[in-house]
Amino acid sequence: MLAEFVVLCLWFGSCAVTEAEDASMTRALKLMSETPLIDGHNDLPWQLRGQFNNQIKELDLHTLSTTHTNIRKIKQGRLGAQFWSAYVPCQTQYKDAVRQTLEQIDVIHRMCEKYTETFMFATSSQDILDAFRLNKTASLIGVEGGHSIDSSLGVLRTMYQLGVRYLTLTHSCNTPWADNWLVDTGSEPSRHNGLSSFGKQLIGEMNRLGVMIDLAHAPLSVMNQVLDWSKAPVIFSHSSAYSVCPHRRNVPDEVLVRVNQTGGIVMVNFYNDYVTCSKTAKLSDVADHFDHIKKVGGAGVIGFGGDYDGVSRLPEGLEDVSKVPSLVAELLRRGWTDEEVKAALGQNLLRVMKEVERVRDSLNSSMPDDVPIPYKEVENPCRTSFGYQNAGNEFSLSRAALLLILILQAGVTFNT
Ligand SMILES: *[C@@H]1O[C@H](CO)[C@@H](O)[C@H](O)[C@H]1NC(C)=O
Ligand SMILES: *[C@@H]1O[C@H](CO)[C@@H](O)[C@H](O)[C@H]1NC(C)=O
Ligand SMILES: [Zn+2]
C-alpha cells in the first residue's frame, strides 16, 4: 500500500507532502522577494584569511567551493544583507589584534569593491533597504570580540569610521574590561563580575556612536548589565535558545523576556553544537529554536544568524547559505504568519538598527568619551604607557629619580 502510494506520487510527480512543500517554498520565496533576509553573522572573511591569506585577487567568489558561502549560493539563498564578521582569534589579544582586525575590515571592503554587481557596502538601515531595491546584498561589518579594540575607545571610534556597525563585546576570552561566556561554564574565572567600569564607559560610547552592542559570547552577568545600562536595544548576532539546547553560548528564557522588553533581537545560530547540544542536527531542530524564541519573546525578537563559515558542523538541510529558504518554508509549514516570517527575515533587525541610529542622533550633542582605561588595568609587556602620567614605567621612574636628586640638592642647599 505504502509502496503503491510512493509509486503513484513519483508517477504523477506530486503528492500531498511535496505539494505542501512546494507551496510553502513558493510562499517563502515570495516573502523573501518583499523583505530582505538579513543575517547577523558570517565568517567568510576569516576563511579568506585562513585559505588565501586575504589574497582575493585571483580567486573567483562566484564558484568558490571550499566555503559555505559563494556568490552563486548567496543568490540561491536570497541573502539580502549580511553582517560580515571581522573576527580575529583571542590569541591575538595583547599582540596584533588591532592590525589583524583592520586587515579583516580591509578584505571585506576589497570583496565589495571586486564584486560590485553583487555586494553593496552598507552602514545604515537605509543602506540595507537601498541595496535590496538594487537586487544586491547589503554588506555590513561586525567586529567579533572586544579584544579587537585593545581597550581603546579611540580604536572603537576609528573602526566606526571604517564602517563597523556592531561589536561583539567578547569572543572566547576575557578582556581587561569584560568577562566572556566561558566564565558561565566554570572553565575560566570571572575577572570583573561582568563589565568593569571601563566596560560601562564603552557601552555609553557605543550608544553615542551608533554601534550595535552584540551579546553573543557574553556571560549572563554581562547580558544583564548591558540590558540595564544600554540606552539602545541589543543584538545577539549568532546565538540560539538555551531552553532548547543548554549550551552557555545560547540565550536563557529570562534574557529572551528582557530582549523583548527592550526591543532587541536574537539571531539564531545554526551550529549543530548550539542547536542540539550534539554533533548532528536537522533543519527542523533549528526551526524548534525559532518556535521557542517566538513563544517566549515573541516574533519581534527573532532573526537569522547562521554563523556560516565560522562553524564546522551544520544541520542536514542547512549545509550552506543557499539553503536558508528551506528554513523559511519550514516556519511557514509550522503555522508562522507572513508577518511573523517577515519580522524574522529582516524587519526586526531593521527596527533595532533604526532605534540604535535614533539613540545616536539623540546623543549627537555629547562629546566623545576621551577618558582612557586606567593603565594598571591594561599593563602588559606589549603596551607602552605614553600619555599616562605616573604610570610606573621607566620614563616616570627616571622623573622620580630626578625629583629626588633635586630635593636632596635643595636639602644640601638649606643646610649650608
Ligand atoms: C535580481 O537577481 C535575481 C537573481 O540573480 C535575478 O533573477 C533577477 O532578475 C534580478 N532582478 C532585478 C530587478 O534585477
Ligand atoms: C514583547 O512582547 C509583547 C507581549 O507579548 C508584544 O506585544 C511586543 O510586541 C513584544 N516586543 C517585541 C519587540 O517583540
Ligand atoms: Zn562567534
If you had to describe this structure to a student in words, what would you say it looks like?
47% of the residues lie in helices and 10% in strands. The chain is α/β, with parallel strands linked by helices and 416 residues long. It is globular. The N terminus and C terminus are likely disordered. Zinc ion binds next to loops. This is Dipeptidase. It catalyses: glycyldehydrophenylalanine + H2O = 2,3-didehydrophenylalanine + glycine; L-cystine-bis-glycine + 2 H2O = L-cystine + 2 glycine; an L-aminoacyl-L-amino acid + H2O = 2 an L-alpha-amino acid; leukotriene D4 + H2O = leukotriene E4 + glycine.
Q: What is the gist of this entry?
A:
The chain has 416 residues and is α/β, with parallel strands linked by helices.
- CATH architecture label of the largest domain: Alpha-Beta Barrel
Helix content: 40-55%
Ions, cofactors and other bound molecules: 2-acetamido-2-deoxy-beta-D-glucopyranose, zinc ion
* CATH homologous superfamily classification of the largest domain: Metal-dependent hydrolases
State the CATH class of the largest domain.
Alpha Beta
Question: Which H/E pattern describes the elements?
Answer: HHEHHEHEHEHEHHEHEHEHHEHHH
**Which regions contain 5 or more consecutive residues with pLDDT less than 50?**
1-11, 412-416
Which structural category do the helix and sheet elements fall into? alpha/beta
* Total number of strands: 9
The structural domain count equals: 2
- Molecular shape: globular
User: Helical region count?
Assistant: 16
Distance linking N and C termini: 119 Å
Strand content: 5-15%
Instruction: Evaluate the radius of gyration.
Output: 25 Å
Mean pLDDT: 93
